[in-house]
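This is your field. Pick holes in the following sequence-structure pair:
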Amino acid sequence: MAPTHVTLYNASFEPLGRVSFKHAVKMLFREVAVVHEQLGDRMIGPHQWPKAVRLVRYIKTHWMYRPAGYSRAGVLRRDRHRCGYCGSQAKTIDHIVPQSRGGGWTWQNTVAACSDCNGKKGNRTPAEAGMRLRETPYQPTRAQLAVLPG
């Protein structure tokens, strides 16, 4: 069975992110990329089955170092799906300053949280709930989010 995503590297071997398997195969046949890491001994025409592909020509990636756009999936990825309070598996987003008190949907005001900690904190600040954040939330760049597992 084909993987759903393939890691994409620049010609300089720096990771750029992931592309769909279908897109990676198209890149191989257009000869804009080569197989960087193969998956088993399988072949797709003249090409090895790609797990990672590398671009043939270097592309400038200054746009990758701009701040990433905010998203729920981005917060979970930034925090590596770990609760900002206890470190266990996180599936929800918690507002540090609750929305009811003017806290917004921003990188600095949201952290990944497990259901237990999110419920325990409720509509309070971490200090009021007697909880401590393990790390200070930050706004990642597009490059930082691209290399983190999804």
Q: What stands out?
A: The mean pLDDT is 90.
